[in-house]
Write a structure and sequence with these properties.
Elements: E1 2-4, E2 7-11, E3 24-27, H1 37-49, E4 51-54, H2 62-71, H3 89-93, E5 95-96, E6 104-110, E7 114-115, E8 118-119, E9 122-123, H4 138-142, E10 145-146, E11 165-172, E12 179-182, E13 190-193, E14 199-202, H5 203-208, H6 212-220, E15 222-225, H7 229-232, E16 237-238, E17 245-246, E18 266-268, E19 270-272, E20 279-281, E21 288-293, E22 302-304, H8 307-318, E23 328-329, E24 337-341, E25 345-348, E26 359-365
Parallel strand pairs: 3-4, 10-12
Antiparallel strand pairs: 1-2, 2-3, 4-24, 5-6, 6-9, 6-26, 7-8, 11-24, 11-26, 12-13, 14-23, 14-25, 15-18, 15-21, 16-17, 19-20, 21-22
Protein name: TauD/TfdA-like domain-containing protein
Domain TauD/TfdA-like: 19-354
GO molecular function: dioxygenase activity; metal ion binding
Amino acid sequence: MGSLTSWTVNPLERKSKEKWNFGATVTGVDLNNIPSDDIKILRDEVWRHKVVIIKDQHKLDPKKQWDLIRSLDPETTDEGKGSNDHRNGLLTRARCIPGAGNVRVFGKGYLGEDHHGYKNLTLDRFLNHQWHISPPSKEAFESGLTRFQRWHFDAPLYGDEPTWFTCLHIVKQPRGPDLTVEWADGSGLTMKIPPGRTAFFSSVQLYDMLSLEEKNLVDHSWVEYAPHPFKWIQHCKSQNTGLGIVGGGHLPEEELENYDPTAVKRYPMVWVNSLTGERAFQVHGICVRKLYLRNSLDEQPRIVEDITEIQDFVLGIQNRILKPEYILPAPAEEGDLVIWDNYSLFHTAIDYPERYGPKAFHKADSGGSAGPKGPVQIPMSE
């Protein structure tokens, strides 16, 4: 346990069968009035614990939430006024709270007569199980059987750099019995999760699962993402686990409209935490169009462009951690603010039947002032 001025930081407690190794709660802070000197301390706690749940922020002003997320990356140039054309299409359609930068309203159901200026707002969930290759039946879903929606980290993967941190303010939380999340991939795996939770796994813990030979390979290798990657995959289908693409469906490059070749992103496969030095295998596999594989700095990389081979490589690593014992459904309650390190975690939403009631959260992120750094330098172009 540590302390931030008058704050208290407690690592999350695991049950006997749980193996995830990250997360903490913070109590005793009012984010509407956080001293500027404490911002760096909070940033370091997020780098260290990867996801931090700041308790009892029921009265958090969305404008203060935007100020907070920007101050955690003080060099960012994101003023929250752009068109967000390069972001995931879900974000471009979400409602921004007036005067609060890139703080957006997400959720499901009726949010009341006045939700920060939105009158009698009812949200229809953008994400649904039609993304999966074989969705659960309506009857199964209504009985409480659900899926992980889409495992990802928050990044446009074109143009702007990934946000360092993402934060969710939980405004309304659904209530009811635990849901059963199914893998539906032949493994028979399931897990119980309370409704309304965001689930996480650690890409640092995943990296630690690799053999020495595999670590050497991914330390020296990199990926190239498609231009306008979320448009590229808009007709694709997901594995039923929410992780990875099944089959084809990618748009031909000539249908991606004009794009700036200098905005296409190449990132190392392994991202190094600037505070702790930890390494994370952080690859958004559904958007990768090329792998560059090598085992040393002076080795000529093997370039992989076959989508099936790319998927097999990435999932061959990531599926190792996609097990119930490594997945944390962050125990956030109504009024809490959740902040996570977007450079070391994957996360996903989980849908629930409407009878559980409305859900509302305010999500904020800002374009990163600097992109990820790997263990070794990678070429920026061929």
